[in-house]
Amino acid sequence: MSLPKTILASSTVAKTCYRIPRTRDFFLSLIRKAVALSHLTQLQAQLIHHRLLKNDISITTKLTHKFFDFNATLHARALFFSVPKPDLFLFNVLIKGFSANNKPLSAISLFTHLRKNTRLKPDDYSYAFVVSAAASLGDARIGAILHGMAMIDGFGLDLFVGSALVDFYFKIWRENLAIQVFDRLPQIDTVLFNTMISGFAKNSCFEDSIRIFGDMVLGNEPKFDLTSVIAVLPAVAELQELKLGMQILCLAIKCGFYSHLSLLTGLISLFSKCGEVEIARLLFGEIRKKDLISCNAMISGFTCNGETEDSVKLFKELLGSGERVSSSTIVGLIPVYSPFGHSYLCNCIHGFCVKYGIVSHSSVSTALTTVYCRLNEMILARQLFDESAEKTLASWNAMISGYTQNGLTEAAISLFQTMQKNNVNPNPVTVTSILSACAQIGALSLGEWVHGLIKSNSFESNVYVSTALIDMFAKCGSITVARDLFDLMPEKNEVTWNAMISGYGLHGHGQEALMLFYEMLSSSVKPTGLTFLSVLYACSHAGLVKEGDGIFHTMVHDFGFEPLAEHYACMVDILGRAGQLKKALEFIKAMPVEPGPPVWGALLGACMIHKDTNLAHVASEKLFELDPENIGYYVLMSNIYSVERKYPQAASVRQVAKKKRLVKTPGCTLIEIGQVPHVFTSGDQSHPQSKAIYAELDKLTGKMTEAGFQTETTTVLHDLEEEEKELTMKVHSEKLAIAFGLISTEPGAEIRIIKNLRVCLDCHNWTKFLSKITERVIVVRDANRFHHFKDGVCSCGDYW
Fold first, then answer.
1. pLDDT tens string 96-155
2. In terms of DSSP H, where are the helices of 70-103?
3. What domains sit in the chain, N to C, each tagged with a CATH number?
4. How far apart are the C-alpha atoms of 574 and 538, rounded to whole Å?
């Protein structure tokens, strides 16, 4: 009986293989073909048996390199240290391997050993690989030391090392230093330019990224390649430059790049972010063999365009096909951009992540934290953050930003301070969020400290950071500092201009806001709807009626903007504050859209200023109909009746609000002394220095009465005796805060306070008198604007 042919064949192969001599080339071939770590360990045993590891360093080097391919860093390390005299090439393989396998400290330690404990000298590869390790570590100090060493050893102008340094500085958010390295390199190539394109995009310098790519396409610089095109797509997507995206698509087709999967995936993301989800869908259909990355891009595209049903459908198809989803799949599925109405979906995704163990991935927990913050589910968001085993910088940023956006500024600042204690280095996103928190509560001392942090980290060149600084200083009362920073900025975007114009408006500097607006028009930056709103606001608080009317006309007729409710409300406010109430009403009647609460609210506020009860009644009736749950309108109407001593009508309005169970926001005032915030409420006696504060208040009242001050009691809401009314006005929160400021600071020191509501007429007059008799500058930020009191005069000109 004969054996089957297959067995005979395999037997023949086995005999042939057995006869192959165990030469150097034989083992090198097996190393290249190894597909599992177990194959390599068996080969290592054979190499030891045949004494090839000790005698042939090239085989040792190849085996070390292959160990890193399987993330077997311990095997590679042990093999390296078994070599008595490793050469520079083997050192470089190990440094690169550690860096590529997320062992940056091991790479840096080995480089230090190479430089200090051997006779070998690092070459350009050594420096490029160790700088890459420093980049993944994110340590600016180590990177700067390595940069200095490279310059000393003569590699400062080396193209390969230079490209690694450019990438390093971009990864630690120092784009200014990346540009300096780039500009000094005598040679350039496509890889270097691709690093610049990608680095600018990742640092939110999207225009610069596109500019570099444009230079390559125009032929002024090295020839672009497929990587160049892919690298610029995120920048185009973030700017939502649809036309440019179409041009890049045509360029890709012309150059023969169109069929590449990675390019199509990038284009799917681009068109999705531009709102062209159908084009993205068509591109997705062009991919014959769809991989997980392209599916992730399409899921994310559907989600960010509100097509949640399609994103969930594609996600289910992925699961049904047996494909193992990644953390990127889940992140794309989470409706971060349009969370409202999708609370149940978010909970389902969260449950899926817990069940399959994906919630521990930092990107997933960060995305869920972000979406819960946007849904104002702050307890859930914080729980996720606290339970994260690995808190990345992105997760810290998500939580801090969430607190800031939801008005929980104290929690944001507290978490930022915890982050500092944990030695987590901030990036521009972190400082932008914390500056916003400082701006909200007027925490100038902390804002100044963050400014110092920005300088030490060289973040000033980041346009978003500098813009946030301008906004913070303006909202904390330091408008001059804000303008100085604005003038120092080499490049400004529309948000920067808007922040400075808005800052001038807050401080009542209408003419300065107008001048800056016209300067913006002459620049290359185009105004937005928010720009016009900021200018109109500035005009309304400076009594610039003619100028405001001209700005509104320019917005509509010259720039083609369709006014929003806020723009109409500003125009009503401009006319109303100037006493032109009839014109304001005519403007409302002529509006092409139905006027909403902001418009009627502006008219009601003007009626309060000019004591027009009849028109106030018309406006309030509209407001009670359109926004019946807003307590502010009831309070304002009640005040208007009280001014006219129509106490029964005032009481009637208050009674309606009471029946609706509407509660007035309690007034409170914050003052910062020695970097410590102190908050006061009306009649507050909880402060440790309460007795001294009230004693100071009594002393000041006596001095001011002698100087001719009379308490303004017309807006007190009840028909009380005048003496009782005066006592009611005496204990307003801003008076308590100012009194505390006077006893807690040196004579002549400026006092700054922040009131959560509009400052009342009596407190305004009281502060004017006080600034004169105490010879102090008192800066008050209320809900509407800033008031700078000096020598008995307010910067608002009593026009607020």
1. 999 999 899 999 999 999 999 999 999 999 999 999 999 998 888 999 999 999 999 999
2. 73-81, 88-100
3. 570-664 (1.25.40), 669-794 (no CATH)
4. 9
